[in-house]
Amino acid sequence: PEASSVEGKRNKIITFFKVWGIIVTGCALLMAIACLNPKHIDFGVFFTIFLPPVVILVLVPLFFVRSLYAISAKKKILPKLLSFWGQFNYVPPLNLYTALYDCIKNKTGIGGLLNEIFQDKRSDISIDHNIMSRLLRYENVSFDDKITGRYEDINLELAEFHTYYTTRDSKGNKSKHITFKGVCFSAVMNKSFKGMTAISTTSLDKRRLDRGNRLLIEGDVDLGDLFDAGKKFLKSGFDKQKLIQKTQEFEAAQEAAESAPKCQDVMLEDPEFRDMFSVYSNDQVEARYILTTAFMERFKKMEKSFNGGIKAIFIDNKIYILVDDRKNWFEIPFFKSATDINNYKEFINDFTKLLAIIETLKLNENIGL
Questions:
Q1: How far apart are CA 6 and CA 336, in angstroms?
Q2: What is the pLDDT of residues 31-85, one digit of tens each?
Q3: Are 314 and 282 in contact (CB under 8 A)?
Q4: Where are the domains of the chain?
Q5: Are 131 and 315 in contact (CB under 8 A)?
Q6: The pLDDT of residue 90 is above 60
């Protein structure tokens, strides 16, 4: 039923595109005919005043309607597909088009639009910056889909996003550098790690890994509370002791971070694994407990199943695996029928490969740490 409903919407959108295309083509032909006689129109006026609004009127509805379909189709179809593997939840990304459409449909006005944009549930689509900042250089994150659930007694999360930072050259020209575009697999394991071990198909910045240590330790101090105490102190001096206490805690956290174990290269016995991956850890003994001969074989097998760079990190009681293949995950094709199961083969294959990480790496087994 869900697929049939989505297919009905898809057909309506295609009809809309056809009608809109005829209207735009007709307008373009009329303008072209008018342009044949230079006396009827000033070309400069045409290109600077009339052409931009026409382009906007063409593109905005197309993006708007297409975006509405994509989110609506995923919200209806993906939960049904995911139910074949167990209990999984699909969380769509925040989309301005769909938020605007919902507010118009529900007549909630500007207040409803702002509430839709900033509602608390959107915070579910996030990444742990204390972890990701160890592996990636970035200033901004753009989120897409997220799937959470439980499989083989493991709580897992799949988040699709891309990270990037910007630079300016000597002339002031701005450039965008994408450092990751793919999916992050994270799972709560039946074990806890005292240190941190990272694996990557590309070299990692050990200073960045160590800086992640500092961020993680400083995260134990409520900086917002410290800031609030400072504001109150400046106004009345009422929280002077609290401000002093928080400042001392912050300084202690910084000192602890500086004295925390530093990441070093881990030299492993498997020459093929060394050629494929760079390995770093701030606990050499624990790293070797994790990276047994059997585990390295399984990790190599997992890496070969994906097209793209792999980064993984073991920390606390979780494992994070980043697949940087620069593709859009969990998409539903627009130009194919929503009722044809063959059109979901890519999604089924992708999701199966991600779940296979648990079985391939045997993440539900306790390695005795």
A1: 11
A2: 666 665 655 555 555 556 566 666 676 667 777 777 777 777 888 889 889 999 9
A3: no
A4: 2-92, 125-205+263-361
A5: yes
A6: yes
Q: What is the pLDDT of residue 296?
A: 93
Q: For residue 82, what are its two tokens?
A: 């995911």
User: The tokens of 86 are what?
Assistant: 């167990």
